[in-house]
Design brief:
The structure is a homodimer of 251-residue chains. With 251 residues, the first copy, chain A, is of the alpha+beta class. Chain A is built from eight helices and nine strands. Chain A folds into two domains: 18-81, Arc Repressor Mutant, subunit A (Orthogonal Bundle); 97-239, Chorismate lyase (3-Layer(aba) Sandwich), CATH 3.40.1410.10. Chains A, B: InterPro entries: Bact_HTH_transcr_reg, Chorismate_lyase_/UTRA_dom_sf, Tscrpt_reg_HTH_GntR, UTRA, WH-like_DNA-bd_sf, WH_DNA-bd_sf.
DNA sequence: CAGTGGTCTAGACCACGTA
DNA sequence: ACGTGGTCTAGACCACTGT
């Protein structure tokens, strides 16, 4: 049972904030001790003494752990680990689905169908609040799982015309967003999602290799930069039943 | 344009924490000034002076406003309102869809189809980790919008047998959860959601008054109490196209 | 350079649950 | 009565942005 030695102390010289170091240590310990039932977790006081810090970084670490579902806290009672560690797959995260599925050991491939500049449809003009002659970069990507189509995503981006990612480049990067950040310094920091079910259109059916009007799950996302500028829109069509979005809501 | 006077000061005698009072005031001001473009928001320093408080409550208020999508903050630059106020409809919130739709001025009714104690199916036993002879309370509810079925939700709860809500009681309460809290002191505090599209089964088609195998959106939710105890499961079937889940993801 | 938000210290008082 | 987490004060130093 003696695994890798767990990092036990914090580094005051590090540029990494204390609360983040504490959080990382606690996450590792929680994962190492996963399954042990009902044992109590350290109190704020114990952590303050253990790490020789004030309450603020301890509280910030515990608060983030609670927000992310690792522990729950009850006033006057204490802090307790949740029984089942959160899985938090992406899907509503922004980009990176392919990498995630691969990490899970799934046979997952991504194919760029096309990269081109297009004139927006009327619908798209309204959504992105642009004029009909403002061109947008359209990236069409098909994600395959075990050789079968899983998701077809089309992303429209309002970016300078000198952003010209190649197909291979995109396939290697696993997400447009990392290229955007690397080459243009543009960071996508928020997505407004709408999720609904629908029947596959003829084109969708063709791309995903299913029958016409078969059920599909559609997520439409408005993409915003760090400065809250609306910079793009994405529509992803997911095969029904095979693809499930998962996530938690706390209150 | 002179609406109700905005509350401008905080009440130190109130039991409501300062940061919540500040947050509420700021939300009202943001909504009142919605649409005005690009104006800067108060800095932490200004708010400290305005409300005569220390930085902590101001920071907590601003942090929550940022988490909830009202403002975004940039280090060394400032805090700025987002252009479009978040709408935040529920749907993934826990309970209260009916009330929300009514607030939006929609003609929305809720009908309890049945309330009964049932033996769990094999599938449900696995999900809730119970024995096949542990009974569960099943509540079947149909939500109608403009006279047409919108959502069919079935909730299974592991609760003491003396919790016997009546149909009328449930319809008035708008959600089982408020009754659970009021009558049993049980607070549902977390939901693990799975969302997918599927074709309507024969039974679903009948209840929702649609054709067999028409697309539907399904959300399955595991319900947890404040102590992280798995206390129930809910499966909700939504009419396709008419019903869209909406929400934001920040990173 | 001054001003911003991010982090941290070292205290304090409180409401609430357990014993 | 005691310990828990929730809130608050009044300071401090830092990295970064804009001028």
């Amino acid at each position: 049972m003696t695994k890798h030695a767990l990092k036990l102390t914090i580094d005051r010289q590090s540029a990494v904030p204390l609360y983040k170091q504490i959080k990382e240590i606690l996450i590792k310990e929680l994962q190492a001790a996963a399954g042990e039932t009902g044992r109590p977790f350290s109190t704020e006081h114990e952590l303050v003494e253990r790490f020789h810090v004030s309450r603020a970084p301890v509280r910030q670490a515990l608060k983030e752990l609670a927000n992310e579902g690792y522990v729950y806290r009850e006033r006057a009672k204490g802090t307790f680990p949740v029984q089942e560690m959160p899985v938090r797959p992406p899907g509503l995260e922004l980009g990176g689905l392919v990498g995630f599925l691969r990490d899970q050991g799934m046979d997952c491939k991504s194919k760029i169908l096309s990269v081109d500049w297009v004139l927006p449809t009327e619908n798209l003009c309204e959504i992105l609040r642009i004029e009909p002659n403002d061109k947008a970069l359209r990236i069409s990507r098909l994600i395959m799982l075990k050789g079968k189509p899983l998701v077809w995503a089309q992303t429209y981006l309002l970016v300078p015309e000198d952003f010209q990612p190649g197909k291979r480049e995109l396939e290697e990067a696993e997400s447009v967003f990392v290229l955007l950040e690397r080459e243009q310094g543009i960071l996508i920091s928020r997505g407004d999602h709408q999720i609904y079910a629908s029947g596959a259109s003829q084109m969708v059916a063709e791309v995903l290799d299913i029958k016409d009007s078969e059920p599909v799950l559609i997520t439409e996302t408005k993409l915003y930069t760090r400065n809250d500028r609306l910079i793009g829109w994405r529509k992803a069509v997911h095969i029904a039943d095979d693809y499930k979005l998962s996530f938690s809501v706390n209150r």
